[in-house]
From TrEMBL:
Pfam families listed in its UniProt record: Response_reg
Full protein name: Response regulator
Phosphoprotein as UniProt keyword: yes
UniProt entry tagged with the keyword RNA-binding: no
Modified residues (4-aspartylphosphate): 55
Domain Response regulatory: 6-120
InterPro entries: Bact_response_regulator, CheY-like_superfamily, Sig_transdc_resp-reg_receiver
SMART domains: REC
Keywords: Phosphoprotein
GO biological process: phosphorelay signal transduction system
Length: 122
């Protein structure tokens, strides 16, 4: 079982994963990095996660498809969507897919911390 406040980060850009992992650990979270949604789906303790942070555009299953798949499977993990493409339609799709937040890259650390606090209130 992952430690309390464990966060899974999914992004196909290794530099984003590295930076996100460093930031999350410095903020007191545990971070698990995945280069694809498919890799993440092989993680054994999805339901024990504090939060999931996923990019929208991934090779293979997209971040949106992943959120829909998790919801259909009954795995309610608070999710934050990050993307380099900020548009209202994408934001609305994220919320409709179950995301608690939508952030544009580069991610502002204060906004991310605020959303992560929201995860703990659920």
């Amino acid at each position: 079982m992952p430690p309390l406040r464990a966060i899974a980060c999914i992004d196909d850009d290794s530099s984003v994963l590295e930076a996100m992992g460093y930031f999350l650990r410095s903020a007191g979270y545990s971070a698990f990095a995945f280069a694809s949604a498919e890799d993440f789906l092989n993680f054994s303790d999805i339901s024990a996660l504090y939060c999931l942070i996923t990019d929208v555009k991934l090779g293979g299953i997209s971040g949106m498809q992943l959120l829909r798949q998790l919801a259909a499977s009954g795995l309610a993990v608070p999710a934050i969507v990050i993307t380099a493409f900020d548009d209202e339609a994408l934001r609305a799709q994220s919320v409709a897919a179950g995301a608690i937040g939508f952030l544009r890259k580069p991610v502002h650390e204060g906004e991310l911390l605020g959303l992560l606090q929201t995860c703990g209130e659920r």
